[in-house]
Design brief:
The chain is mostly helical and 116 residues long. The protein is built from four helices and no strands. It has a single domain, classed as Helix Hairpins.
Length: 116
């Protein structure tokens, strides 16, 4: 049980580091908070909440993976190189795809609430 609690501590340390060091993660968290408020005001149904929260988690997890990949690339290859740049670009593209997906789901969920 003690090891389990230690693993939660490591995860919280990772979240704290990303929060401190990654502006984009903080932006995503603020957007998620705004979406949650909009969902509360829009009285989303359970399935709508599930879709919105799944997408929010998807985007935040993608940003966490992106940050970890960037740190790993910088550790392995501190000097800029084309392959390292491509790896970072691909990781950033994953966040972009997750974000676009979340926006599209948000449009589907919230447009019904806004338009009637």
């Amino acid at each position: 049980m003690k090891r389990l609690f230690h693993s939660f501590g490591f995860a919280i340390n990772g979240l704290a580091a990303v929060w401190r060091e990654q502006r984009n993660f903080r932006i995503h968290v603020v957007v998620v908070c705004m979406v949650v408020i909009a969902g509360w005001l829009g009285q989303l149904r359970a399935i709508e909440w599930a879709l919105v929260l799944l997408c929010a988690g998807f985007v935040l997890a993608a940003e966490l993976f992106n940050s970890a990949i960037e740190k790993m690339v910088d550790l392995v290859n501190p000097q800029w190189s084309e392959p390292a740049g491509k790896i970072k670009d691909m990781a950033a593209a994953a966040v972009f795809v997750a974000s676009i997906t979340a926006v599209l789901v948000g449009i589907l969920v919230f447009s019904k609430k806004l338009l009637g």
